[in-house]
């Protein structure tokens, strides 16, 4: 299709298993003929589920679309440890599973709350600007620092040993592969992630997502905006203020509107919209005024 510079928004893609998140970006970018395309929250090739892909000016909203909460349906297998902590890696240990269901449930409870988690060796975390997975693939030894993450809940546990399934609601930056690895370690038999579906990114759930092939078909059928989510709907959790013509002019020119946004708490983020609810900018409340975070017009 011809390039349309007015396409700004996002697609909630139901990512299929087997594709990298970057590959999904590239497929959409090529189909829609726009270079400014990027996803929020990388999913491994093994994983499926909701992947927000932002287009055009919406890429400026990347850190605001995710409200800091994600949710997953996790499947893991006990007794088999791999070098990647998931089913794509090489098996490095096989042990018998002696734990019973009650012991599994008890071990899972230890993960709920604020915890320190060591990211997988094969991950996108970086050391001196280089992703861990690149260092690991070269066979290099390197220190992996633990991260502070939070598990808000673990629910709907299904145990059919050696397979376990459960739902996790957690903070951004939490690795499900690490949970599988660490649960196996607690139970003394090892374990790895065998399946993963992301069901939520911030306020957006899997029910909002559309299969990638359906999105591509709509683009190729000259209806690229059929499944496109507008900027305002990408950030429904962010409060907003509607502004008038003179104020819109001030925003466009980066001028601060006097005595504006004072009703918000310090450091609270809010959006400025026009009469049609089009998001024009994001701002952050300061002690006596505010500062622009992103101007989108």
Describe the overall structure.
- It contains 8 helices and 18 strands.
- The protein has 297 residues and is an alpha+beta fold.
- The protein has 3 domains: 90 residues, 2-Layer Sandwich (Pseudouridine synthase); 129 residues, Pseudouridine synthase, CATH 3.30.2350.10; 56 residues, Archaeosine Trna-guanine Transglycosylase, Chain: A, domain 4, CATH 2.30.130.10.
- Strands 1, 2, 3, 4, 7, 10, 11, 12, 13 and 14 form a 10-stranded mixed sheet that branches.
- A hairpin with an 8-residue loop joins β5 and β6.
The succession of helices and strands, N to C, reads EHEEHEEEHEEEHEEHEEEHHEHEEE
How would you classify the quaternary structure? single chain
* Fraction of residues in H or I helices: 10-25%
Shape: globular
CATH-defined superfamily of the largest domain:
Pseudouridine synthase
Number of domains: 3
Largest sheet: 10 strands, mixed
Averaged pLDDT: 92
Number of alpha- plus pi-helical segments: 8
CATH architecture of the largest domain: 2-Layer Sandwich
Q: Give the class from helix and strand content and strand pairing.
A: alpha+beta
Reported by name, the CATH topology of the largest domain is Pseudouridine synthase
Rg (CA only): 22 Å
Number of strands: 18
Low-confidence stretches: none
